[in-house]
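Case study.
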Amino acid sequence: MKDDPTVPPDARFETRAIHLGQDYRAETGAVIPPIYMTSTFETGNPGGFDYTRSGSPNFRNLQTTLASLENARHCTVFASGVSAITAVVFGLKAGDVILSEQNIYGCTYRLFERVLRKFDVHIKYANLANPANYSLIGQLKPALVWLESPTNPLLKILDLRAISDAAHAHGAAVVVDNTFASSALQQPLNLGADLSLLSTTKYTNGHSDCLGGAVCANTDEWQEKMIFAQKALGLQPSPFDTWLVSRGVKTEALRMERHSANALELARRLEARKGVRRVIYPFLPSHPQHELARKQMRSGSGMMLADFGHDFAGALAFIRRLRLFTQAESLGGIESLVCHPASMTHASVPKEVRESVGITDGLVRFSVGIEHFEDLWADIERALG
Ligand SMILES: Cc1ncc(COP(=O)(O)O)c(C=O)c1O
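After joint prediction, the assembly is written out as follows.
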């Protein structure tokens, strides 16, 4: 064992038990970085770390990777996608306006309505797939324009370049929740957005075994705000979860190829199947923004929606007949999941609001995994009877 000059040679057992074996930074030859399970760091360390709430080598590793994958100068990681959303919106002040796409993730809506409104931030919703509504940016002068593309759950595609141009003409910043697309298939900053936000819980990690979030930006100003939010609001992830996401992201491109291929084939077969009322998938020519999707995204990810003509109870009964598709919230893992937005992800959105944006009781949302396609198809055919 190498002598450690900081531990006196005559130190007692207790002292040695604590102070020896800390030499993990010596070149061990480890191919994968360790998990830095420490709450604090010795002052003056070469990495500039002080306390894990405001940074850790594991955060830094993942931030470097994600910034690079999103073609961003900066990235900050958070405990979850909702923590990342919190970090962005808590930079606003009373009186500020958010103009949001009307079809957004249910918990983003809940955060806007039940938390942000208490701080006197005004939120307006509009169908931003309709360019006629871009004029609202000039009228409302929002601080932020909030977008998802594809949206959750309806898979609407928004024109990120056109909306960013319109927003910048009026001094508004554009946030794109890139969770449904994934960094492998779409890079919002390349299309003019100011921030790309990820729930890394989904495709980034890809294995449904931890939660995480990230915000990517190009300006130092946004980066400072994100780092401040991470430590001031206590939104940091755990080093272990960050390490898991760093491991998961290594296979993102490969996983996305299979997710996209499986979802496209499922969408095609369901669209051709008698009795299926509607299939929504951005890379089907029947999708209203198909051409835009092809321009913005490399392929359509694993998210797909179908309406089999069931009512609320019928949709749930179909879901329960599936075996390989597990009924669960979440998406983006290697295993196929199925969800009933009206009673699950969007249950926090009032029924009349849900229906006004098109989230009807019969809609079934699939997160198509990377299993063999024919096994997935057989499961769906059997459940449809
Ligand atoms: C589009 C979108 N954004 C954000 C989130 C929130 O992410 P998390 O569950 O990691 O907090 C989700 C979760 O489903 C989502 O679908």
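Observations recorded in class. DSSP finds 13 helices and twelve strands in the chain. The longest strand covers residues 74-78. We will return to this complex in the next lecture.
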